[in-house]
Design a protein that fits this description.
This protein has one domain. It contains 12 helices and no strands. Helix 8 runs antiparallel to helix 9.
Length: 204
Amino acid sequence: MSDLIFGAVFVIAAYFVGALPTAHLIARRAGQDIRTMGTGNVGALNALRSLGKMAAATVFIVDVGKASLVMLIGFAIDVPDWSMYAGALTTMLGHNFPVYIGFRGGKGAAVMTGVSLVILPVLTLFSIPALFVGYALFRSAFWAMMLTFITINVLTIVTGQSLAQIVLCIVLTMLVGSTHLFRAFRQLWPAIKTLDFHRIGQIE
C-alpha cells in the first residue's frame, strides 16, 4: 500500500472514531436524548448539566481518550507525518460534526486535549495552570479551556516546535472557537459587539 493510500485511510478512519458521540450514547442508555436537553450540545459540559457529574466525567475521559487513541495508533503504525496532522483535524471534525447523529456534536475541547496530550505532552501539562486562571477570571468553562489552548499555542511557538505542530494547534483552537461561535451566533453576537467576555463564556 502506498504512503498516500495508507495515510488517507488513516485520516478517514480518524473521522469515524472522532464521530463516536459519547454523550449521546450515555444519554441513550439512560433513555434520554442529550440533543433535546440543556443546550443540545453533545459534549461533556452539557452532560454535566443534564446528566450529572459521573456522566460528564465519563464523556470527557472517553472523548479525550478517543482522540489520544487515534494519535497513538498513528504513531504505532507509523503513518506519514502529514496524515498524523490531518488525522488530528478529522478526529475533531468527526467529533464536532458526527455522521452518526446528523452532523451536530460537541465543540472539540476534549478532542484537542487528547491530541495535544499525545503530540505535545509536556507543553500540555505546562498549560494546565491556565485552565484554573481562566475559570477564576471568567467563571466560564469555555474561557478556561480557550485560555488553556491559547497557552499551548504560545508555548509551541516560544519553545520552537515544528511549523506543522504550531499550525495544527492554531487550527484546532480556531475550530473549537468557531464551532462555539456558529452554534450560538444569535445569542453571542450582542455580547461580541459589546466585548462582554463574561457573557460570551456563559452562552453555549
